[in-house]
Each structure stands twice: as structure tokens, then as C-alpha cells.
Amino acid sequence: MNSRISDEFTNLNISRQRKYQLRMQRDKRCTECGAPAAQGSRCLEHLVKARERQRKKRGLKRRYLNTLSYKLEAVAA
Ligand SMILES: [Zn+2]
């Protein structure tokens, strides 16, 4: 049987998605897929996806190669 999760976020007046994100953040996991977070709030895969999404949205031309997600990619490669 499924019982409802009861924690500090349960009674907040926010969306289910936001609660999921807050719980994942609390547990140091990726806010999108729940895998262990590399650093910050996402796993490496979603860190990169978020980066590329933002680049596109903001029309950025430069790549800041000292950024966390690039470094982690280099380590993973
Ligand atoms: Zn992820």
C-alpha cells in the first residue's frame, strides 16, 4: 500500500514537482532524475543538459571551460 510521504515539504503550498525537487536537493540527489548528484543540484548528465538548454535559450556564444559541468565531463571522459 502506498502511504503518503510526510515530511517538512508535505504541507507547503507548492506543486508536486517543486516538492520533488526540494526533497531531491535535501538528499543531495539530481532534481530531475533522482540519481546521486555530482555536485550542486544535478547529476552530470542533467548538469550538461541544463547547461546546453540555457546556452540555447540565452543565445550564448562563449563556453566557460572552468565551469563545473565541463570539468566533470573531462573527468568522466
Ligand atoms: Zn539527473
Percentage beta strand: under 5%
Mean pLDDT: 91
| Distinct small-molecule ligands in the complex | zinc ion
Low-confidence stretches: none
Largest sheet: none
What quaternary form is this? Answer: single chain
SSE ordering: HHH
What is the count of β-strands? 0
Distance N to C terminus: 43 Å
What's the number of helices?
3
> Portion of residues in helices?
40-55%
Please, how many domains? Answer: 1
**Radius of gyration over C-alpha positions, nearest whole angstrom:** 15 Å
Supply the helix-strand structural class. mainly alpha
What is the molecular shape? Answer: elongated
Summary of the model, kept short:
This protein is an all-alpha fold. It has helices at residues 16-26, 44-58, 68-76.
Task: Give a verbal description of the structure.
With 77 residues, the chain is mainly alpha-helical. Helices cover 45% and strands 0% of the residues. It has helices spanning 16-26, 44-58, 68-76. The protein is elongated. It starts with 15 loop residues before the first helix and ends with a helix. The model has no long low-confidence stretch (mean pLDDT 91). The protein binds zinc ion (ZN). Zinc ion (ZN) binds at residues 30, 32-33, 35, 42-43, 45-46. Zinc ion (ZN) binds next to helix 2.
Please describe the structure with a list of short key phrases separated by commas or semicolons.
single chain, 77 residues, 3 helices, elongated, binds zinc ion
